[in-house]
Design a protein that fits this description.
With 109 residues, the chain is an alpha+beta fold. The chain contains four helices and five strands, in the order βααββαβαβ.
């Protein structure tokens, strides 16, 4: 896939800016291909990893900055309460709650 050998393990977990992916040898064309998916504004995630609760939380984590944190079902899941998996009783995925200080801004992707 890349001209620099295999991707590091970190590449297939979470979301990453295009510049970091480029440092791993991933091209713009590859980011537009089937192996990568935009996960948040300006961030890309390895799409073959899936969308389980753990991966959904990892993809949201780069949005947390300066005193913020992950909340709701996602915080409970990471604390070991795996019955709270981010899916409601109708099978619809719940959003990952990103808690930010009052002065911070976060735009929807």
């Amino acid at each position: 896939m890349t001209g620099r050998g295999p991707l590091p393990d970190a590449a297939v977990r979470g979301s990453h800016p295009r510049g970091l992916a480029s440092s791993w040898g991933v091209t713009k064309a590859e980011l537009r291909g089937p192996l990568w998916a935009p996960s948040n504004r300006g961030l890309w995630a390895w799409s073959a990893t899936g969308r389980g609760p753990d991966e959904r939380i990892r993809r949201a984590a780069p949005l947390v900055r300066g005193g913020g944190g992950i909340g709701g079902w996602a915080a409970a899941f990471w604390l070991g309460h795996h019955d709270l998996d981010g899916v409601d009783s109708d099978g619809v995925e719940l959003p990952v709650l990103v808690c930010l200080p009052r002065a911070s801004r976060c735009r929807r992707s």
